[in-house]
């Protein structure tokens, strides 16, 4: 099975930290969103595709597991891979690590669709993008699996 690809590299900035001295949840999500757009580019669905076709990859659901707190100045790396791919939807895994310690900070399991920017309606994912997604197929590690209780039905968000 191929290795995941690097889709983000940076560090925790002082303004991303809450009053407890940890990176705030919104910035975990911001970094994951940047990673999604880099992943889209690797699939051939980057800025040129968006401008030409008027559609972009959009997360419909995201299951996050926070595993280790990150502090100001900590290096951050996100790798990504495909868990499953169909013409309608991709399921992606992103894993945020601290490369200085190799600790996994968080995991993100996203279901994404190619959405029309003007209408918000899903479009079929092009064959070339599906082939590229298959080339970075990964397995879901135990530390990224759902855990705990469920509070109700899953809610999907529009584009």
Structural topology:
Blueprint lengths: L4 E7 L13 H18 L4 H7 L1 E12 L8 E11 L4 E9 L4 E14 L5 E2 L3 H8 L25
Antiparallel strand pairs: 1-3, 2-5, 3-4, 4-5, 5-6
Provide an overview of this structure.
With 159 residues, the protein is of the alpha+beta class. The protein has one domain: Roll (Thiol Ester Dehydrase, Chain A). The chain is 21% helix and 35% strand. It contains three helices and six strands, in the order βααβββββα. Strands 1, 2, 3, 4, 5 and 6 form a six-stranded antiparallel sheet that branches. The longest helix has 18 residues, at 25-42. It holds the Pfam family 4HBT_2. InterPro entries: HotDog_dom_sf. This is Thioesterase. It comes from Alkalilimnicola ehrlichii.
Give a quick account of the main beta sheet: strands, pairing sense, barrel closure: 6 strands, antiparallel
User: By helix and strand content, what is the structural category?
Assistant: alpha+beta
Q: What is the CATH topology classification name?
A: Thiol Ester Dehydrase, Chain A
Strands, total number: 6
**Mean pLDDT over the full residue set:** 92
In short:
With 159 residues, the chain is of the alpha+beta class. It is 21% helix and 35% strand. The protein is built from three helices and six strands.
Offer a few descriptive terms:
159 residues; alpha+beta; 21% helix; Thiol Ester Dehydrase, Chain A
């Amino acid at each position: 099975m191929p290795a995941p690809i690097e889709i983000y590299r940076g560090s925790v900035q002082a303004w991303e930290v809450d009053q407890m001295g940890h990176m705030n949840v919104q910035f975990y999500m911001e970094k994951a969103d940047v990673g999604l757009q880099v992943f889209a580019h690797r699939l051939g669905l980057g800025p040129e595709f968006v401008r030409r076709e008027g559609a972009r990859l959009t997360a419909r659901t995201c299951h996050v597991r926070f595993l280790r707190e990150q502090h100001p100045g900590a290096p951050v790396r996100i790798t990504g891979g495909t868990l499953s791919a169909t013409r309608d939807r991709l399921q992606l895994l992103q894993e945020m690590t601290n490369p200085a310690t190799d600790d996994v900070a968080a995991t993100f399991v996203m279901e994404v669709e190619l959405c029309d920017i003007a209408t918000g309606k899903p479009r079929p994912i092009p064959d070339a993008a599906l082939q590229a997604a298959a080339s970075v197929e990964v397995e879901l590690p135990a530390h990224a699996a759902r855990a705990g209780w469920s509070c109700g039905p899953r809610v999907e968000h529009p584009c």
